[in-house]
Amino acid sequence: MATGEGGGTVVGTGAGQRAAGEWTRYWRDPERPVEALHAHFERHVFAPHSHDAYSFAVTEAGAQTFSCRGAGHTSAAGMVMVFNPEDPHDGRSAADLGFTYRIMYLGPGVVREILDDVTGGRAALPLFDRPVVDDPVLARAVRRLHPALVGGADALVRDERLTQAVAAMVRRTATRPARVGESGDGTRRVVARRVRDLLREAWDQELTAQDLADAAGCSRFALYRAFRTEYGMAPSDYQRLLRLRRGRAELAAGATAARAAAVGGFADQAHFHRWFVRSFGVTPGAYRAAAAA
To answer: Exposure of 175 by Cβ count < 10 A (0-12 exposed, 13-18 middle, 19+ buried)?
Structure first.
């Protein structure tokens, strides 16, 4: 058992508890009903059961078959599974080599809070009538959210991706989709600049989406849309860029990569190195050497 950086509890089980080759990794948020499972099963068979939460999943490899609401379904690699609270279902592998999948369980209260934020309090809880959906957009949203939860990403990243995943799931596949409001250009710019100013002031602090919403004077969803439209990236991406710039300044002053990573607020040097290369095209070591020369 381990505790993720985001405060959640991660529990792993090895082959000693399951058939050879099978594994599971479970995560639980200590503050709200949000849980996540990453697993590979080959011979495991789920008995008929249900959850008291919405379940969003993506099959990463292989295929799994299950019964839900009186019909049989198969989810192959890249497909998304969606269950309403109390939807009875079972499950087993549909491939000789088993299947690997990621699934998240979101309490109805969490989903309602997100949709109220998205719609300004005008949304009912969604109903999903298709347990399997072949939609690359939804698959990507689930794949982005799951590691952010389990891997202990910053609170701002978790909030953004959770909102994105739920909003996309409801908009693209729910029978009762939430209505998303729009804001004018002038209001959008004001909101985006307020968020930008806070991020610049508190680049090294752990900010949540609600912190930004309070500063901007709007909902979390509205601030995200406004900021992305105005600056071409999510607030969390902009905050990471500010941290990279701070680390780059340290390198230019002769600091080691380890020192630059620490000052920039990165969890470790490897994380700093990876994002530095992605953003600036050179390694921290090469940049430091060039600055020295």
So the answer is: exposed
Determine the Cα–Cα distance for residues 175 and 193; give it in Å rounded to an integer: 36
The dihedral region occupied by 34, where left means phi > 0, alpha psi between -120 and 50, and beta the remainder, is: beta
Q: Which of 231, 236, 237, 233 is nearest to 193 (CA)?
A: 231
Query: Using H for helix, E for strand and C for coil, what is the string for the chain?
Result: CEECCCCCEEEEECHHHCCCCCEEEEEECCCCCEEEEEEEECCCCEEEECCCCEEEEEEEEEEEEEEECCEEEEEECCCEEEECCCCCEEEEECCCCCEEEEEEEECHHHHHHHHHHHHCCCCCCCCCCCCEECCHHHHHHHHHHHHHHHCCCCHHHHHHHHHHHHHHHHHHHCCCCCCCCCCCHHHHHHHHHHHHHHHHHCCCCCCCHHHHHHHHCCCHHHHHHHHHHHHCCCHHHHHHHHHHHHHHHHHHCCCCHHHHHHHCCCCCHHHHHHHHHHHHCCCHHHHHHHHHC
Taking the CA of residue 158 as centre, how many other CA atoms within 13 Å lie in the half-sphere pointing to its CB? 24
User: Hunting for tokens 């979101």 — which residue is that?
Assistant: 106
pTM over 0.70: no
**pLDDT tens, residue by residue, 207-263:** 888 999 898 888 888 888 888 888 777 888 888 888 988 998 898 888 999 999 999
74-94: pLDDT as tens digits: 999 999 999 998 787 888 999
Q: Which residue has the tokens 């008291």?
A: 52
Q: How many residues in the chain?
A: 293
